[in-house]
Write a structure and sequence with these properties.
The complex is a heterodimer of chains A (272) and B (486). Chain A has 272 residues and is an alpha/beta fold. Helix content of chain A is 37%, strand content 25%. Chain A has 11 helices and 10 strands. Chain A has a 6-stranded mixed β-sheet with strand order 6-7-8-3-9-10, sandwiched between helices. In chain A, a hairpin with a 2-residue loop joins β9 (236-241) and β10. Chain A is globular. The two termini of chain A are 28 Å apart. Chain B has 486 residues and is an all-alpha fold. Chain B folds into 2 domains: 3-181, no CATH class; 251-485, MetI-like (MetI-like fold, Orthogonal Bundle), CATH 1.10.3720. Helices cover 75% and strands 1% of the residues of chain B. Chain B has helices at 3-28, 40-77, 80-83, 87-104, 109-116, 122-128, 139-177, 184-224, 227-232, 255-286, 289-304, 307-328, 338-362, 366-373, 379-407, 411-416, 434-442, 451-482; strands at residues 236-237, 251-252. In chain B, strands 1-2 form a two-stranded antiparallel ribbon. The two termini of chain B are 59 Å apart. In chain B, 34% of the residues are buried. The chains are: A alpha/beta (272), B mainly alpha (486).
Chain lengths: 272, 486
C-alpha cells in the first residue's frame, strides 16, 4: 500500500467501501476466442488507479491476451472475439459508441520487444502528440517531447542527439523511448507487455525504477514472466493459468500466503 | 558413338560408381556405419562425381575443340580462289562444306561414289535427302567435305579412346582411395559449392559477354560517326537510301528517341505508381486473407500478358478512345500518341509495383503497426506515417524496377505511339523510343558494317547503361532499407 492510500484509509475509517482506491479498469466475465479456441475463461479483474497491477502465469496462460483486451489491441486480429464486459472509468470500452482511437489514446501500450519507429528520437516521441493534435506549435511540441523523455528517464542520455534514429539506441534505451512515446500522449493507463524480457539486468533495473515512478501519474498493468519483477514493482498481482484467473490480490499476500495450490506451485517454481 | 549415347553411358557409369562406392564403404567397415568418416551415401556420391566429372570435362573439351579443329581442316583445303574472297563469302563456302559433309553421311555407298566422281548433281541429290544447299557444289567442296568427314571420324574414335582411358584411371583411383577414413562428405560439399559457383558465374559471364559484344560494335559505330552527332544531335535521320553512297553518314541524334522513351515511361509511371501502390496498400493492410489470396494472383496475371497483346489493346481500344474523347474536348489527339502508349504501358507495369510493394509493406514488422495503433493512431495514419515511410525505400526500389521494364518496352510503343521520332513535350502527339529504333535499324536487308545498322548497338548500349544505373540504384535503395529496423 502506498502512503496516500493509507492516509485515505485513516480519513475514511467509517466506511468500508471507500477505503479501497478508485477502480480504473474492470473486467467482468471476460471470454476471449481465437477462432474456435478459447483463450480466456470468465476472467474478473479490477485494476485500481495509481497502482501497478502485475499479471503473472506460465506461457500461454492468457495474461497477454487479457492485457491486449484492455485497449482493444485484439481488434487487429481478425479471428479474435472478445465477450464479456471491460470498463474504463465505468464506461464499457467494447460499446459500439466507444471510439477505439480515443480509447487507445487513454490506455497506452508498451510492447515486449522495443519497437521504436524508424524515425528520429524526437519524431518517435512527437508521433502521438502530433496525431492527436496535443501541441499547438513547435515550442509546445518540444516541451512535450522533452518532458516525456525526462519522465522516462532518458532525456539526459539522448539530449544531444534527438535527431538521430531511435533504432540506433541500445535495447534498454529503446524501451524507455517507447515508454516516453506512450506517456507523451498523456494516457491514463499504461499497459506493459513483458517490457523487460528483451533487456539485460541493468536496463531492466532502470525500467523497473521508472515504472515505480510512473505510478504517481498513471495506472499501470504489467505482464511479466519474472516473479521477482512482479514482487518488486507491483502492488497487486493476478495469477493466470490455462486461461483462467486463479487468484488475485495484494502482491505481498500473493507471494507470502497464496490461497490456491496452483499459485503456490508456480511462485515456488514447481511448474511453469 | 554419338555424343548423346556417350552421355548416357557416362550417366550409367556414374550410377554404377555410386552404387559400388556406397556398398563398398559399408563392406569396408563390415556394416558398422559409425566407423565411416561420412555416411555411405556421401561415399556413393563421391564415387559418382569422381567418375562423372572427368568424363564430362573430356566431353566438353571435345565439344569445344572439335569444331575449331575441323574448321581449320576445311580452311586449309580451300583453293586459292576461295582464299582470295572476302571473309564473309569464304565463311559461306566453308559452312556449305560442312553442310555437304553432313549430307554425305545420309547417302548410301553407290550414291557416295557417284558424288565423289562428280557424276551426279550433288546439290539436287542432297536436297532430296533433306539437306538444302545455298549454291551449286564444286568438286573441291566435295573433297573438302570428305576430308572433313574422315577427320571427324578420327576425332570421334580418339574421343572414345580418351574417355575409356580416363574412366579406367578414375575407377582405379576410386578403388584405391575408397577407405573408411575418406572425407567423402567434405569433398561432396566442395563439389556442390563448385557447381553453384559455376552456375552463378555463367549468369554473370553472360552479362559481361553481352556488354562486350555491344561495346565492340558501338566502338565501330563511333569510328564512323562522331560522339557529338549521336549524343547531342536533335535530329534522327539515318538515311537508309544513302547507304554506301559517298560521305553522307546521316544524322543520329539520340535526343528525340531518348526523350520519347523518357516521356512514355513517365506517363506509364504516373499511371502505374498510384494505382499499383494503392492496390498494394489495400492488399497488404485492408484486404482479408481470402481477398488477398485471390486478388494478388489475378493482378499478377497482368504481368503474364504478352506485350504484343497490350499493343493491339492500345491500337484498337485505347488509342481510338483517346482520339474520340479528345475530339469531344476539342483536342487534337492523334490515334497514335505518347499518351496511349504510356497509359497502356502503365497498366502493364502495375503488377510489378503492386506485387513488390505488397511484399515490402507486408514485411514491415507488425510491431511497428502495433506501436502506432497502441498510441491511438488510426489505420490510415499508421499506414501514412509509419508503414509507408518504413517501406518507402523498398517501394522506390519496386518503382525503379518497373521503370526499367517500361524503358525497355518495344511492342506497345510500335503499335501505340508510332515509329516517327519527334522531339515534343506534347503527349498527344506521336513519338517513338530507343527500342523501336533499334528494331527498325536491325530488321530488313542490311549489312552489319554500315553506321545505319551499327547505331542500333550504340542505342542498345545507351539503353542498357540507363537501365543498369536504375537497377543498381534500386538495389542500393533496397539494401539500405534492410538496415532500417533490424
Amino acid at each position: 500500500m502506498d502512503a496516500s492510500a493509507q492516509t485515505m484509509n485513516t480519513n475514511r475509517e467509517s466506511t468500508v467501501v471507500t477505503n479501497a482506491p478508485h477502480i480504473k479498469m474492470k473486467g467482468e466475465k471476460v471470454n476471449v476466442f481465437y477462432g474456435e479456441k478459447q483463450a480466456l475463461f470468465d476472467v474478473d479483474l479490477e485494476v485500481p488507479e495509481h497502482q501497478v497491477t502485475a499479471l503473472i502465469g506460465p506461457s500461454g496462460c492468457g495474461k497477454s491476451t487479457f492485457l491486449r483486451c484492455l485497449n482493444r489491441m485484439n481488434d487487429i486480429i481478425d479471428i479474435c472475439q472478445v465477450k464479456g464486459n471491460i470498463t474504463l472509468d465505468k464506461t464499457d470500452i467494447y460499446d459500439s459508441s466507444v471510439d477505439v482511437v480515443e480509447l487507445r489514446a487513454r490506455v497506452g501500450m508498451v510492447f515486449q520487444k522495443p519497437n521504436p519507429f524508424p524515425k528520429s528520437i524526437f519524431e518517435n516521441v512527437a508521433y502521438g502528440p502530433k496525431i492527436h493534435g496535443l501541441a499547438r506549435n513547435k515550442t509546445e511540441l518540444e516541451e512535450i517531447v522533452v518532458e516525456s523523455l525526462q519522465k522516462a528517464g532518458l532525456f539526459e542520455e539522448v539530449k544531444d542527439r534527438l535527431e538521430e534514429p531511435g533504432t540506433g539506441l541500445s535495447g534498454g534505451q529503446q524501451q524507455r523511448l517507447c515508454i516516453a512515446r506512450a506517456i507523451a500522449v498523456s494516457p491514463e493507463v499504461i499497459l506493459m507487455d513483458e517490457p523487460c524480457s528483451a533487456l539485460d539486468p541493468i536496463a531492466t533495473a532502470k525500467v523497473e525504477e521508472l515504472i515505480d515512478e510512473l505510478r504517481q501519474n498513471f495506472t499501470i498493468v504489467i505482464v511479466t514472466h519474472s516473479m521477482q519483477q512482479a514482487a518488486r514493482v507491483s502492488q497487486r498481482t493476478a495469477f493466470f493459468h490455462l486461461g483462467m484467473l486463479v487468484e488475485e490480490g495484494v502482491t505481498d499476500e500473493i507471494f507470502t500466503n497464496p490461497t490456491d495450490k496452483r499459485t503456490q506451485d508456480y511462485i515456488t517454481g514447481r511448474f511453469g | 558413338m554419338t555424343t548423346g549415347l556417350l552421355l548416357s553411358v557416362i550417366i550409367v557409369l556414374m550410377v554404377a560408381a555410386f552404387l559400388y562406392s556406397r556398398t563398398r564403404a559399408v563392406q569396408l567397415v563390415a556394416g558398422n556405419v559409425k566407423k565411416l568418416h561420412s555416411r555411405p551415401t556421401y561415399h556413393g556420391s563421391f564415387g559418382a562425381l569422381l567418375i562423372g566429372f572427368p568424363l564430362v570435362v573430356v566431353m566438353l573439351f571435345w565439344m569445344i575443340a572439335e569444331p575449331i579443329y575441323l574448321n581449320n581442316i576445311v580452311h586449309g583445303q580451300m583453293p586459292d580462289t576461295v582464299n582470295a574472297l572476302t571473309d564473309s563469302e569464304r565463311g559461306l563456302i566453308e559452312s556449305q562444306v560442312r553442310s555437304i559433309a553432313n549430307g554425305l553421311t545420309l547417302l548410301d555407298a553407290p550414291e557416295r561414289r557417284q558424288v565423289s566422281e562428280g557424276l551426279v548433281d550433288t546439290r539436287a541429290l542432297l536436297a532430296e535427302k533433306g539437306v538444302p544447299l545455298g549454291s551449286d557444289v564444286q568438286r573441291y567442296m566435295v573433297a573438302a567435305a570428305d576430308t572433313y568427314l574422315e577427320r571427324q571420324g578420327l576425332s570421334r574414335t580418339l574421343r572414345v579412346g580418351v574417355l575409356v582411358l580416363v574412366a579406367l584411371l578414375a575407377g582405379f583411383y576410386l578403388v584405391r582411395n575408397l577407405t573408411p577414413e575418406l572425407r567423402a562428405r567434405n569433398l561432396v560439399e566442395l563439389a556442390v559449392r563448385i557447381a553453384l559457383i559455376t552456375a552463378s558465374s555463367i549468369a554473370i559471364l553472360t552479362t559481361i559477354g553481352i556488354v562486350l559484344s555491344m561495346l565492340s560494335e558501338t566502338i565501330r559505330f563511333f569510328n564512323m560517326v562522331p560522339l557529338s552527332n549521336f549524343f547531342l544531335g536533335t535530329v534522327w535521320d539515318p538515311r537508309f537510301a544513302n547507304v554506301g553512297s559517298g560521305t553522307e553518314v546521316g544524322q543520329y541524334g539520340l535526343i528525340p528517341l531518348l526523350w520519347g522513351t523518357v516521356l512514355i515511361s513517365l506517363i506509364a509511371l504516373m499511371v502505374a505508381v498510384p494505382i499499383g501502390l494503392f492496390a498494394a496498400i489495400y492488399m497488404a493492410e485492408y484486404a482479408s486473407n481470402r481477398v488477398r489470396n485471390t486478388a494478388k494472383p489475378l493482378l499478377e496475371i497482368l504481368a503474364g500478358i504478352p506485350t504484343i497483346v497490350y499493343g493491339f489493346f492500345a491500337l484498337v481500344t485505347v488509342g481510338p478512345f483517346f482520339r474520340d474523347f479528345g475530339a469531344t474536348l476539342g483536342l487534337d489527339v492523334s490515334a497514335r500518341s505518347a499518351l496511349t502508349a504510356g497509359v497502356v504501358m502503365g497498366i502493364m507495369i502495375i503488377p510489378f509495383i503492386s506485387s513488390l510493394s505488397d511484399d515490402i509493406i507486408t514485411s514491415v514488422p507488425r510491431a511497428m503497426r502495433e506501436g502506432s495503433l497502441g498510441l491511438g493512431a488510426t489505420k490510415s495514419e499508421t499506414i501514412r506515417r509509419v508503414v509507408l515511410p518504413a517501406a518507402l525505400p523498398g517501394i522506390v526500389g519496386a518503382i525503379l524496377l518497373a521503370a526499367s521494364r517500361a524503358i525497355g518496352e518495344t511492342m506497345i510503343v510500335v503499335l501505340a505511339a508510332g515509329v516517327a521520332p519527334n522531339l515534343t513535350a506534347n503527349p498527344l502527339e506521336a513519338v517513338t523510343t530507343v527500342t523501336v529504333k533499334i528494331v527498325s535499324q536491325l530488321t530488313g536487308d542490311t549489312e552489319f558494317t554500315s553506321p545505319q545498322t551499327l547505331v542500333a548497338f550504340a542505342l542498345g548500349l545507351t539503353l542498357f547503361t540507363m537501365t543498369l544505373i536504375l537497377n543498381i540504384y534500386a538495389l542500393y535503395i533496397v539494401r539500405k532499407y534492410r538496415e532500417q529496423y533490424d
